[in-house]
Design goal:
- The structure is a single chain.
- This protein has 13 helices and seven strands.
- By secondary structure, the chain is of the alpha/beta class.
- It folds into two domains: 184 residues, Vaccinia Virus protein VP39 (Rossmann fold, 3-Layer(aba) Sandwich); 100 residues, Putative methyltransferase TM0872, insert domain (DNA polymerase, domain 1), CATH 1.10.150.
- The protein has a seven-stranded mixed β-sheet, sandwiched between helices.
- α1 crosses α2.
- The chain is globular and about 60 Å long.
C-alpha cells in the first residue's frame, strides 16, 4: 500500500463471493480491480488454482493492488486497460466462469486531492480515472458551451438547477479559468443558493462532470453485452452500481436479455427473433447490511445485481 494511504474496503465483498460462487479451477474477470479487495476474495475462495483476469486503467490502483496481491501472482493477470477492451484479451472459445463489475469512483481516488474528484478537498479540476486521457474536468468546466454544460449537469447529475449552475460557471470563467475543486464547489453553491440542503450543493454536479469526463454510462452500456458473451453457460455476471443512472442501465439490460421477446407489448406477433441469454438471479438489487454501512459509508449507496448465463436450450 502506498505511504500515508488509508485502508480501502471493497463493497459487499462476501455478498459478491456468494453471487459469483468462485471455485477451484475457475477463471474470473474483475473488470474494475481498484485496490484489489474483490480479486483477493475471489482468489482466496477459489483455491488452489482459480484464476483472475483483472482490468484497471488507474496506475495508482494497479500499484496498490499489485503489492497487495503479490502472493497470488501465479494465478492473477492484471491488464492496464478498460473493461470495455474485454474482446482484446479474452477468447470466445475460452469463456470464463464469472465477471464482476464494481462501477464508479473508488475511495482512494476520492481521498487523493490531486485527482480532483472531491469538492471537500482542494485539488486541480481533473476527475480522470485514466490520467493519460485527454479530456479532464478542467476542459469541460472551462471550454464547453453553456447549453452543453447544463445538459451534462441535468442528465448525468439529475440536477434540477443545471441551467443556473451552467450560467454561473460561464459568467465566472469569462474573467479567469476555474482551476480547483473548491473554487468550482463555491461557484455551484452560489448558483444554487440553498444553504440548508442535506447534501452539499455541489454533489450532483461533481458526479455529472465525473461521469462526462470518463464516459461512464456509455462504458456500462458497452460492456454488459460483452460480459454476457464471454461467460460460460452457468457463469455469473455481478454488477455493483452506486447511483440510479448506473443501476437503471443494468436493470434494463438484465430485463431485456432475460426475455425471449423484446417486441413492444402492443405488438400482437413477435418479429424480433430475440432469445434470452441470461436469467436474473437478483429480482431486486442487494444492498449492504447496516454493519458494513457503519464501517464503510461508501457502501450505503451500493446496489448489486446478478445474472447467470444460460445455454442455447436455456
Amino acid at each position: 500500500m502506498m505511504p500515508n494511504s488509508k485502508p480501502h474496503f471493497s463493497v459487499m465483498q462476501q455478498v459478491v463471493i456468494d453471487a459469483i460462487l468462485p471455485r477451484s479451477g475457475g477463471v474470473y474477470v474483475d473488470g474494475t480491480l481498484g485496490a484489489g479487495g474483490h480479486t483477493e476474495a475471489i482468489l482466496s475462495t477459489s483455491v488452489p488454482d482459480g484464476k483472475v483476469i483483472a482490468f484497471e486503467i488507474d496506475p495508482q490502483a494497479i500499484q496498490i493492488a499489485t503489492e497487495r496481491l503479490q502472493s497470488f501472482s501465479g494465478r492473477l493477470k492484471i491488464i492496464r486497460d478498460s473493461y470495455c477492451s474485454l474482446p482484446n484479451y479474452l477468447a470466445e472459445e475460452e469463456p470464463v466462469d464469472g465477471i464482476l463489475l464494481d462501477l464508479g469512483v473508488s475511495s482512494m481516488q476520492i481521498d487523493n486531492p490531486e485527482r480532483g474528484f472531491s469538492f471537500q478537498k482542494e485539488g486541480p479540476l481533473d476527475m480522470r480515472f485514466n490520467p493519460n486521457q485527454p479530456i479532464s474536468a478542467y476542459e469541460i468546466v472551462n471550454q464547453y458551451p453553456e447549453e452543453e454544460l447544463a445538459r451534462i449537469l441535468y442528465v448525468y447529475g439529475e440536477e434540477r438547477k443545471s441551467r443556473q449552475i451552467a450560467a454561473r460557471i460561464c459568467f465566472i470563467r469569462k474573467n479567469k479559468p476555474i482551476r480547483t475543486t473548491t473554487e468550482l464547489a463555491s461557484i455551484i453553491a452560489e448558483a444554487i443558493k440553498q444553504p440548508h440542503q442535506k447534501i452539499h450543493p455541489a454533489t450532483k454536479s461533481f458526479q455529472a462532470i465525473r461521469i462526462a469526463v470518463n464516459g461512464e454510462l456509455d462504458a456500462i452500456e458497452q460492456v454488459l453485452p460483452m460480459a454476457v458473451n464471454y461467460l460460460k453457460p452457468g457463469g455469473r455476471l455481478a454488477v455493483i452500481s452506486f447511483h440510479s443512472l448506473e443501476d437503471r442501465i443494468v436493470k434494463h439490460f438484465f430485463q431485456s436479455e432475460s426475455r425471449n421477446c423484446i417486441c413492444p407489448p402492443s405488438q400482437p406477433v413477435c418479429t424480433c427473433g430475440h432469445t434470452a441469454s441470461i436469467k436474473v438471479i437478483t429480482q431486486h438489487p442487494q444492498t449492504a447490511n447496516q454493519d458494513e454501512i457503519e464501517n464503510n459509508i461508501r457502501s450505503r449507496s451500493a446496489k448489486l445485481r446478478v445474472a447467470e448465463k444460460i445455454g442455447v436450450n436455456g
